[in-house]
Write a structure and sequence with these properties.
By secondary structure, the chain is an alpha+beta fold. It contains 8 helices and 12 strands. It has an 8-stranded antiparallel sheet with strand order 6-5-4-2-1-10-11-12, with helices on one face. It is globular. It starts with a helix and ends with a strand.
């Protein structure tokens, strides 16, 4: 994005935000943040290319720590994050993943009013502990292909089994839409795996309208994902989904297209933030208590 703009000096640059094709006008600070994010994405693309053509040796990744040492840290996490902190993120995900791998039921609560339950069984053995403990942008040891990565790094998600989700989720910070800082929370009323009502004020009205315009019959399915952020270097109160999603102890809860199971398929996965979440597995294992990781 930056290079073509410098070369061609266009009179108008249109910034397209994923899952938000609605023509919102960005203020100056939002444009700067978008350009910074684009530059980071370009760096990650270059790193992925180097990995894919084997210019960075696969042999040097025999051990997890050695794989981490090969990553350009500034591309993957915030400048202040060290390799040791990256290992810490992986360890948090591994500990939570072990609980998820043995668990049958999840309960999600928050001070803003969330109280939600779902079945989380029927994943492959050791799926979460193995997947989420690995560093991003690496060569898959089983397939030899390049794995994905996100900026910033740090989450572990789980997808409810279809038709088992019930209760209320309250998005209380921000979401894919409307982006930025919210004035009012949005309540998702969920029954048997479907969002039956989306309640609130202006933000809720916006989301309902957005789903009508751009969604399909499965956009209110659950589906989606329930993800705990595990990166302590993502600060609070940014109101930017890219960062809030990964913030330690926050949750991004998505509806619509399922993240893992391939059962709920939709045009959209719409995600919002639940701040300082509490997560309990099988009624007796507290994974996270008001934003504090407990396992």
């Amino acid at each position: 994005l930056v290079r073509p703009a410098d070369l061609h000096r266009p009179a108008l640059v249109v910034l397209v935000y994923t899952n938000n094709p609605n023509g919102n006008v960005c203020d100056h600070d939002a444009v700067v943040r978008s350009l910074e994010a684009a530059a980071i994405d370009d760096a990650l693309d270059l790193f992925a290319l180097l990995m894919s053509v084997r210019l960075i040796s696969v042999a040097k990744r025999a051990l997890a720590k050695e794989r981490l040492s090969m990553l350009p840290v500034e591309m993957v996490v915030r400048e202040k994050t060290t390799l040791e902190e990256m290992e810490e993120i992986g360890d948090i995900c591994r500990r939570i993943g072990r609980v998820y791998d043995k668990g049958k039921k999840i309960r999600i609560l928050s001070d803003s009013g969330s109280d939600f339950t779902a079945d989380i069984s029927d994943y492959p053995p050791n799926y979460h502990a193995e997947r989420w403990a690995q560093p991003p942008v690496r060569i898959n040891e089983k397939t030899g292909g390049l794995t994905g990565g996100t900026w910033p790094w740090g989450e572990i998600h789980i997808e409810p089994k279809p038709a088992t989700a019930n209760g209320t989720i309250v998005w209380d910070t921000t979401a894919h839409v409307p982006e930025g800082r919210w004035e009012h929370p949005v309540r998702l009323i969920i029954k048997d795996g479907w969002v039956k009502e989306i309640e609130g004020k202006n933000e809720a009205a916006y989301i309902n309208d957005y789903l009508r315009k751009y969604g399909d019959e499965n956009s209110r399915g659950v589906g989606g994902e329930a993800a705990i952020g595990t990166n302590k270097n993502c600060p609070p109160n940014t109101y930017i989904m890219r960062s809030e999603k990964k913030r330690l102890g926050a949750m991004h809860f998505g509806i619509g297209h399922g993240a893992d199971r391939g059962k709920v398929n939709s045009k959209l996965r719409l995600e919002g933030i639940v701040d300082r979440v509490t997560v309990v597995v099988d009624d007796n294992i507290v994974v996270c208590d008001k934003g504090q990781i407990k396992v």
